[in-house]
Specification:
Number of strands: 32
Strand content: 25-35%
């Protein structure tokens, strides 16, 4: 990304929450989507905040609510006090109740409206609204420059490589000059704005593009939309943006043709992690010196490898790997893998603490955190602090596509076994 002057006129609003109905469950059982670990050492929120920092946008507000304890802690520890340019900051605004509002945030629009008293503290010209759980690299300055050149009230980012595919943020119909003519949402392509129906193919020079949930909105426009035109609207995507179109506001489309993964399901999350281990990774480059990925410095010791065989894998900090075999996998921080264990094509998220066998009267831990001796894990996701015993087979032996065995510590989603956070899988189990 270009090394441009810090843009003091833009404030980023990052939404850290997904939904209580997240398709990433059970990874979201005790955390929000933006707090889910990725590539061994990072969280998904790091991608978005790093995009802001690398674009020299350093006024960043993170609005959080659902399952936000882990996310709030990560943001506060990783970025609060960071030496951003010109007094920049990353500030968490958690959902709150007050005398005027005794309910929690009801949606993205309601959250921004409730926080305007904070967001208006600095004299910015535009707000950059961003979902916090997507993986991509974008130079936001190019987006903002396009917004300013078009003299638009609102600019929406759309994916130019996946036409006519609704990815959860609606479909935008653009004319030849990239002006938004219409917005529709959901897979049934229901029209949310009463205008000429849109075909799923080019018609009269127009094209349909999926939205990304990324918006640049002029400060004055944002305030009027939320406080005057639509004071009871709860959601930006489904209410405020279509309403702005119906008001005749100038809305510009910015086409993005880079890698973008919205982590809309377990399979997408699994695929994104597997792509990080490819030698010729053309998707998301975690090793880009010009556009680094920032996260919380944890000051862990180097990973200890004892006669292990590791191929095509990523190993996080502070792991203890005995005489095991690891192939095509992402191994998270503080992971312990015992002798003769095999991990293939899997994501092991690691643990929050070091936990070893302890013996003593009244103080015996039969299965410590980590992967036990002789266990074999294939095409699975093992969430943090899970205890996998000795000689356990986790490989979906019955080829189940969907299964809810949460009472036994795991679920199966799209053929991928997900071991739940802090689950205990007894010795000799076969999943």
């Amino acid at each position: 990304m270009k090394n441009v002057k810090c843009d003091q006129s833009v404030a980023a609003i990052v939404f850290g929450d997904g939904s209580s109905q997240s398709r990433l469950y059970p990874l979201t059982k005790r955390r929000s989507e933006a707090a889910i670990p990725i590539a061994g050492n990072y969280r998904l929120i790091d991608s978005v905040i790093s995009n802001c920092i690398n674009s020299n946008i350093t006024k960043i507000y993170a609005l959080t609510q659902f399952n936000s304890t882990s996310l709030n802690s990560h943001i506060s520890r990783a970025y609060t006090g960071a030496r951003l340019l010109n007094g920049g900051f990353v500030e968490v605004i958690a959902a709150y109740q007050c005398p005027e509002h005794n309910a929690w945030f009801q949606g993205t629009a309601d959250a921004i409206r409730r926080c305007l008293w904070v967001l208006e503290e600095y004299p910015v010209s535009e707000f950059l609204v961003l979902p916090g759980h997507h993986l991509y690299k974008m130079d936001y300055h190019e987006l903002i420059d396009a917004h300013r050149r078009s003299r638009a009230d609102i600019t929406v980012a759309v994916l130019s490589t996946r036409k006519n595919e609704d990815l959860g943020f609606g479909i935008f119909k653009l004319d030849a000059e990239y002006q938004v003519l219409e917005f529709r949402e959901n897979q049934e392509m229901k029209t949310t704005h009463n205008s000429i129906p849109v075909n799923n193919s080019d018609h009269n020079g127009t094209l349909n593009f999926p939205g990304m949930g990324i918006y640049v909105i002029n400060r004055d426009v944002m305030i009027k939309l939320l406080t005057e035109y639509f004071p009871t609207a709860n959601d930006l995507k489904s209410q405020v943006i279509p309403g702005a179109i119906s008001l005749g506001m100038k809305i510009h489309g910015y086409q993005f043709d880079g890698y973008w993964e919205d982590m809309r399901c377990i399979k997408a999350y699994y695929r994104a992690n597997m792509e990080t281990i490819r030698r010729a990774n053309k998707a998301y480059n975690f090793f880009d010196r010009d556009s680094p990925l920032y996260t919380l410095p944890r000051h862990l010791p180097p990973t200890l490898v004892t006669d292990a065989v590791i191929t095509d894998s990523i190993i996080g900090d502070g792991c203890i790997l005995s005489k095991c075999r690891i192939k095509g996998s992402v191994i998270g921080m503080r992971t312990r893998i015992g002798n003769d264990a095999v991990v293939e094509d899997s994501i092991i998220m690691g643990s929050d603490i070091y936990h070893h066998d302890r013996t003593g009267e009244g103080d015996t831990i039969a299965i410590p955190i980590g992967i036990g001796e002789g266990s074999h894990i294939r095409k699975a996701i093992v969430d943090k602090n899970a205890r996998v015993g000795k000689n356990v087979m986790i490989m979906n032996k019955d080829n189940v596509h969907e299964g809810n065995m949460e009472a036994n510590g795991y679920v199966i989603s799209e053929g991928i076994i997900v071991i739940i956070r802090s689950a205990v899988i007894p010795d000799g189990s076969i999943l």
